[in-house]
Specification:
With about 350 residues, the chain is α+β, with helices and mostly antiparallel strands. It contains seven helices and eleven strands. It has a four-stranded antiparallel beta sheet, with no helix packed on it. Strands 4-11-8 form a three-stranded mixed beta sheet, with no helix packed on it. Strands 1-2 form a two-stranded antiparallel ribbon. Strand 1 and strand 2 form a beta hairpin.
Length: about 350
């Protein structure tokens, strides 16, 4: 193995560093040259259209671009036509429709002013085609109208596209038609069940609706007559029987006492029919519902009735008329007073 001297080693390291510096300088130079060429090509070789498509720069004031050059029958694609003209010149939007070969679905127009004062107009067409083959979108020439009335004819830029068939293989054999189907087919059972349930639910809803909306007749019964009216009517019927004229005392006093006892029971809440004369007189004499005069009249009337019923007293016609008058006066003098409805407001 050969051993180098220290001086030889230092010289070898310096040579390697020198070669590395020259190589780095060469790489930097090449990178800078490539970047400069790229920028130059970007500034002079191509520009970006208004719809995002790269189009070659031309000195012509018209340019055209397609979103794609291959479509299938019925597919929609876009064509962009751009014009850059002085503000005094005008260019009408060309009509690109041509039968079924080129069908225009939609058209949009946009204008804006460039920094140099010229007007840039962009037409965006939505196109489709229903004819297979290669087609060229063109109107021949376009007329630019100047401010002085003269016109300039410019050729329409070339815009070609190809329409392909939707069939993958046009030579593939056609499939045979299917057999005829019977219509209607078998009705599914579950659908019949659903229809039956729906009909029943509808009928139930109609029945409930009619039941709830049907006007109801509420029977209003007349209130029972007050006790004094009932007692007075019974007394009139008793008087019409003629027992006083015939001096038929026993049935007269029995019915008369029943009428008065029912009246006192219904009018004042006294339980007269279930008590004897002594018990009833004791209760009537201590009741605060009757005045002292009414208490005395009641006691005298019931004593007279019981005397006829139990002691076999034979009253005359005048006694029977007095008993009847006492009963009628008792009813009439104990009729409740109705509240006055007179308006006392000033």
């Amino acid at each position: 193995m050969r051993v180098q001297s220290p001086r030889s080693q230092v010289q070898s390291q310096r040579q390697r560093k020198s070669r590395a510096k020259r190589s780095l300088s060469s790489d930097v130079g090449l990178w800078t040259l490539g970047f400069g060429l790229s920028v130059l090509l970007a500034l002079t070789g191509c520009r970006r259209g208004s719809d995002g498509l790269s189009e070659p720069v031309s000195s012509s004031p018209l340019s055209v671009g397609l979103s794609t050059n291959f479509v299938r029958v019925g597919d929609v694609f876009q064509l962009t036509l751009t014009s850059i003209l002085p503000p005094s010149d005008t260019l009408a939007a060309p009509d690109l429709a041509r039968g079924k070969e080129v069908v225009v679905r939609n058209r949009e127009e946009k204008k804006h002013t460039l920094p140099d004062g010229r007007t840039q107009t962009t037409w965006r067409y939505d196109l489709t085609s229903f004819v297979v083959g290669n087609h060229n979108v063109s109107t021949g020439v376009l007329q630019i109208i100047h401010s002085d009335g003269t016109s300039t004819a410019l050729p329409f830029p070339t815009a070609e596209f190809a329409v392909r068939s939707m069939l993958v293989d046009s030579n593939a054999p056609l499939r045979d038609i299917k057999d005829l189907e019977e219509w209607p087919g078998a009705f599914p059972r579950w659908l019949a069940g659903v229809l039956l349930i729906s009909v029943l639910a509808l009928l139930a809803a109609v029945a409930v609706h009619r039941l709830l909306t049907k006007p109801r007749t509420i029977l209003h019964y007349a209130p029972p007559p007050p006790p004094h009216e009932t007692a007075l009517n019974e007394l009139k019927r008793l008087r019409a029987k003629g027992w006083i004229e015939s001096e038929n005392a026993e049935p007269f006093y029995v019915e008369l006492s029943s009428i008065i006892r029912r009246y006192l029971e219904n009018r004042f809440g006294l339980r007269a029919p279930e008590r004897t004369t002594e018990e009833f007189i004791r209760e009537a004499s201590t009741s605060r519902l009757l005045s002292s005069d009414h208490q005395m009249l009641t006691c005298e009337f019931l004593e007279q009735c019981d005397l006829v019923k139990f002691a076999r007293h034979r009253p005359r016609r005048a006694d029977m008329q007095s008993g009847y008058d006492a009963a009628e006066r008792l009813v009439r003098e104990t009729i409740p007073h109705e509240p006055s409805t007179t308006d006392h407001s000033p």
